[in-house]
Design brief:
Blueprint lengths: L7 H4 L13 H4 L10 H16 L8 H30 L3 E5 L9 H8 L2 H10 L4 H5 L11 H15 L4 E6 L7 E5 L2 E5 L12 E2 L5 E5 L2 E7 L2 E7 L2 E13 L6 E11 L5 H5 L3 H12 L16 H26 L6 H4 E6 L6 H12 L4 H11 E4 L10 E3 H7 L1 H21 L4 H7 L2 E2 L2 E3 H8 L3 E3 L2 H11 L1 H6 L4 E3 L6 H7 L2 H11 L20 H26 L8 E6 L8 H17 L8 E6 L7 H18 L4 H4 E6 L4 H7 L5 E4 L11 H7 L3 E4 L5 H8 L5 E2 L4 H10 L4 H7 L1 H11 L12 H8 L12 H19 L2 H13 L6 H13 L8
Parallel strand pairs: 1-2, 1-11, 2-10, 11-12, 12-16, 16-17, 18-19, 18-21, 19-20, 21-22, 22-23
Antiparallel strand pairs: 3-4, 5-9, 6-9, 7-8, 9-10, 13-15, 14-15
The structure holds ligand 26Q.
Ligand 26Q binds next to helix 8.
């Protein structure tokens, strides 16, 4: 075999059982790297880099070149800490968390890295002295959109908190060449474009060739007996090479730097000269394409399952590569004393997508390390923990078993044995209850049920809010809960207040510090010290002035990017999240139409003028979601075209909603729309971001909204709609009939009729027909209005009326806004991570003192 740059020896470096380890930094007597970059050295570094890498002076350099020079200056500072942190972890032989997630929605890094390292001021001033505006340079960073929504952004917030709390951790995922598609709105409709975020290189990552490994697919398994027992040998497989790229994750004002490891798929063929030499160019390049397709693109589905083979391969690809690395690293540090493996390693799987970690760890322990089934199964259970993020039936992951058997034959054998043992155990609990056992099985109805695998085989099953945790116990995993109640917990999600307040809202950060100091930077629950300020008229005025400045910033952003003109004196109301029927953007849209009709039909009607912002991507294959986008844009046009309506209403669809635009939108928002059908939104995290930035929520008692209401009190939030238990009963009863609401409620009937009578889409009056029908009739046996839009409309509309009236009373409104920020500290992901660590991971923080 003629490898060019990955000789097989390099793929499988010999690992001595136990290496000599460096002693900790204290014993070494070394001084820790300090980030003392002052303005002068920052300036010198940037100029030096432009000179060395681009052969340009500052004056000649492009913004992209300057961005890279600044970023690599920041990176130099990080690297010193990175090395120290790695050595420290090894010296202490600390337990490490591996957080496996198919998505990490990181957003841009540079500003948060500056903030965490030292402060942004030195950089801002240094650049200013060079005649450069920092904000212009920040925009040059391509945004890694390696996630769809909440689940991926949560993983990113967790990494920030883990490093900031000095907990040793590595995030593990796929290095998608294309992240989530870029969205354009053309003629009122979503059009998708590829997101080639790596085009100009990525300053923050570095390949780690020595940790590359192979992942095997296909082939068959031979059973070989010899004097030592039965062995399973995987033959005739095809290999894909997994190459890791590491990205440093800096903690806030600490020495700890963790790693996000992204795995990139490479063909073995590419590095095999022979097939080219033999003239098989076409075939070789086809095989390269097939292998490298694995890490080509992020699937754009959010809260929706599709059993595509490539997706299964993706999940196994990064899971297997990660598990192989974990075992190698464990052996380097601890040798082969497998009994201590769960004391040194914990693996967290973010939803079921990396659930193949369970059979893969079994495989490696048994087939590669020679352990028996029982010992391996015990290690697996003690090491792996699982968080569920959804109860939506259509999002629960399952695979055709023939696909798993064909692609991952050895993994399938292990799943079969796990399933056999599980069913035996279930039989003892539920003798004769076949249906119940099938419902709990790993393999049933020719499918592999990933959630059952994860619940049965891990030691911890978590919900992401209190309500969601209860629903998991009472419904989704009720049968498991009866026989293994000790596994179940609920830890409410959180967001990093460093990105979602300190970095995205510097004005509010300064105002808060003026009033209560900066202890909340590291202890965010101390934001509650702000609560008395809700009664302080001068403070409320300053708070409102900050909001106004952030609104002005958003107005400018929209003008530059989308050529939209917004009046900053209007109330700013936002609903930004993935587009999904259960999130009920439809409720918001219908309500705007109703307001429009009131304005148009009654010349005496007035209201507080309001801009309704929507930010949402629809999965490209989700027809109904795309229709809702079309409807929102049609309403925007309708409102604009009416001279009286546009005095009170404006609808803005923010194109390509991503982390960077969220950082502008959220600080400018005064109202946060959280409208999911109760019981459907596991937690929500956008709700927390808006609250922290002083927006008041209008929402249902769903997910973490329940806990937001608990924090701020019912007087400081607008709660409407059916409660979760009512919704669940109504589903069970099957008596819901939206038609009767349509017939009796004139305003709903009028607005819905406008969907199909040419009012909204004069050139395509039939385009929204499916949407209309889904609300009234349902189709193919599915229920009408399955998310109770019509049912909750009346209550929503009344809550909106109260909100409108309260906004006109600034004293009341700004007191509510202040209380929302003040009570948001509990939703910092630092609190979430502390709870995970106390209840599940038991990591010891690295000690730098
Ligand atoms: C799975 C298998 C095959 C294909 C697609 C999927 C898939 C992909 C993405 C299933 C689910 C997702 C995304 C789920 C998600 O983002 N859930 C959100 O997680 C947040 C963090 O916990 C919660 O706050 C949200 O309530 C929840 O909707």
């Amino acid at each position: 075999m003629g490898y060019i740059f990955l000789p097989s020896g390099a793929l499988y470096p010999r690992i001595p059982d136990v290496q000599n380890h460096p002693i900790s930094w204290k014993e070494r007597g070394t001084t820790l790297p300090t980030t003392t970059f002052d303005k002068e050295s920052i300036k010198a570094s940037i100029i030096g880099k432009l000179q060395r890498y681009n052969g340009r002076s500052l004056q000649e350099a492009s913004p992209q070149q300057i961005y890279k020079a600044v970023a690599s200056t920041v990176r130099d500072q990080i690297m010193q800490k990175f090395t120290a942190a790695r050595e420290e972890r090894k010296a202490n032989k600390s337990k490490r968390l591996y957080y496996l997630s198919v998505e990490f929605l990181m957003g841009r890094s540079m500003y948060c890295n500056m903030l965490n390292l030292v402060s942004t001021r030195e950089y801002r001033e240094a650049l200013q002295e060079l005649g450069i505006n920092l904000d212009d340079i920040l925009k040059e960073e391509p945004e890694p959109g390696l996630g769809n929504g909440g689940l991926g952004r949560l993983a990113a917030c967790f990494l920030d908190s883990l490093s900031s709390l000095d907990l040793p951790a590595m995030g593990c995922t796929i290095r998608y060449e294309y992240g989530l598609f870029r969205q354009k709105i053309i003629d009122g409709q979503q059009v998708e474009f590829p997101d080639s975020w790596l085009e100009n290189g990525n300053v923050w990552e570095m390949p780690v060739m020595e940790d590359a490994c192979e992942v095997h697919y296909g082939g068959h398994v031979d059973t070989v007996e010899d004097e030592t027992g039965t062995h399973f040998v995987h033959r005739d497989y095809y290999s894909v090479v997994a190459v890791p790229y590491d990205m440093p994750i800096v903690g806030y004002h600490t020495q700890t730097v963790n790693t996000l490891r992204t795995w990139s798929a490479r063909s073995k063929q590419r590095i095999d000269l022979n097939s080219f030499g033999r003239g098989n160019y076409a075939q070789a390049s086809q095989e390269i394409d097939l292998a490298e397709a694995i890490s080509k693109v992020l699937y754009p589905e959010d809260n929706h399952y599709e059993g595509k083979m490539l997706r299964l391969k993706q999940h196994y690809f990064f899971t297997s590569a990660t598990l192989q690395y974990i075992i190698r690293d464990f052996k380097k540090l601890h040798g082969t004393d497998w009994s201590i493996f769960p004391d040194k390693v914990c693996i967290h799987i973010n939803d079921t997508h990396p659930g193949l970690a369970i059979p893969e760890l079994m495989r490696l322990l048994m087939d590669q390390e020679g352990l028996g089934w029982d010992e391996s199964a015990q290690i697996v259970e003690k090491t792996i923990a699982y968080t569920n993020h959804t109860i939506m039936a259509e999002a629960l992951e399952k695979w055709p078993d023939a696909m798993v058997r064909q692609q991952l034959p050895r993994i399938y054998m292990i799943l079969e044995e796990m399933n056999r043992r599980l069913c035996q155990r279930l039989w003892n609990h539920f003798p004769g209850e076949w249906d119940r056992i099938a419902h709990m099985a790993i393999l049933a109805y020719d499918q592999v049920f990933m959630a059952n695998l994860c619940v049965a085989m891990t030691h911890s099953v978590n919900g992401v809010s209190q309500l969601h945790g209860d629903i998991l116990k009472e419904e989704t995993f009720h049968d498991f809960y009866q026989i293994m109640p000790e596994k179940f917990t609920a830890i409410t999600n959180g967001i990093t207040h460093r990105r979602w307040l300190m970095s995205c809202n510097p004005r509010l950060t300064d105002l808060i510090c003026e009033s209560i100091g900066d202890a909340w930077f590291t202890d965010p629950e101390r934001l509650s010290e702000l609560k008395p300020m809700a009664n302080d008229a001068a403070f409320r005025e300053k708070f409102a002035a900050v909001k106004q400045a952030n609104k002005d910033r958003l107005v400018k952003f929209l003008r530059d990017r989308q050529d939209v003109v917004v009046d900053p004196s209007f109330m700013f109301d936002c609903q930004s999240k993935r587009l999904h029927e259960y999130k009920r953007q439809m409720l918001n849209a219908l309500h705007i139409l109703v307001l429009y009709n009131r304005i148009v039909s009654d010349s005496g009607f007035t209201m507080q003028p309001r801009v309704f912002f929507f930010g949402a991507k629809a999965s490209p294959g989700y027809y109904r979601a795309k229709q809702i986008i079309r409807m929102i844009n049609a309403i925007a046009r309708l409102v604009d075209s009416h001279p009286r309506a546009r005095q009170f209403l404006k609808v803005v669809f923010l194109e390509n909603y991503d982390v960077s635009s969220a950082e502008i939108l959220i600080p400018a928002s005064e109202v946060s729309e959280q409208l999911s059908t109760a019981s459907k939104e596991a937690s929500g995290t956008g709700n927390m971001k808006f609250m922290m930035n002083g927006a008041v929520t209008i929402g249902t008692m769903d997910g973490a909204n329940v806990e937001i209401a608990e924090q701020v009190g019912m007087d400081n939030i607008y709660i409407f709609g059916m409660r979760s238990d009512t919704v669940r009963n109504l589903y069970a009863e099957r008596t819901y009939n939206p038609m009767s609401i349509f017939e009796t409620n004139h305003e709903i009937r009028q607005a819905m009729t406008q969907m199909i009578d040419g009012t909204l889409l004069p050139n395509a009056p039939a385009a929204l027909q499916d949407l209309y029908h889904s609300l009234l009739m349902g189709d193919y046996g599915s229920m009408a209005d399955p998310y109770f839009v019509l049912k909750d409309f009346g209550s929503y509309s009344m809550a909106q009326r109260r909100l409108n009236d309260d906004y006109m009373n600034p004293e009341k409104w700004w007191s509510m806004a202040v209380i929302n920020t003040a009570m948001s500290g509990i939703f910092s992901s630092d609190r979430t991570i502390r709870e995970y660590n106390e209840r599940i991971w038991h990591l010891t923080p690295l000690d730098w003192n």
